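ingest -> validate -> predict -> emit
validate: passed (alphabet ok, no gaps, 233 aa)
predict: started
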Amino acid sequence: MFFKETKNQGNIDLAKLNGFIDPAVDRYNALTEEQDKMDFKGALSKFIRLYSFLTHIIKLGDEKLHKFYAYAKALLRKLPKDTGERTPNLDNDVSLQYYRLQRSYEGTIDLVKEDGVLYGKTSGTGLPLEDEKENLSAIIQKLNERLGTNFTEMDKVLEQFVRDMAGNEEMVLRAKNPIDLFKIIYDNNIMDVVLSRMDENTKFCERYLVDEEFRKEVDKILLPLVHTRLSKI
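emit:
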């Protein structure tokens, strides 16, 4: 049911898919130890990230493993969100090596009274500069002409997607990497972002979900835009 073409999937199919996932969610909720929940969710997330990374490099050719990957992603999305922040385990999460304290200066520091400039931390996530807006509009116009679409406010929709992804701390962190590595986490999150904006931009989001050619062309625009903007945060 999951691998059927999207246009052939109906509400009954989606209900059946949820029916297959719900028992695992129930077993997760039945765990009494928070550590067990954290360990399971952590292992599931690591498997998804590792599988996604490896399949960008090599073809594994394992149909069962690929189906399990699809199931794991669906399951992870249905697991309850963590409440509160976890206190890091300093033994496992943080490793301090070659640590040394050394006095490098002793005395007073005199401050010079003068005007300065305060730079905002999130200056890179606001609206694009005029040049970027004009360039984006030109690209979107060509895309509409090539695919026969007429999304006049696609730039605003893409800006919404950028802002949504800018709120994802892991994506912001990974944006410091080259774009080919950043694409891995982009691919893992873009569908969730599109689905979350479905009510506001129904036609665009539906086209993105069902039209593979349209999706690829949009990703060519959106991926470098997101990478550039998030890397400035």
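DSSP finds nine helices and no strands in the chain.
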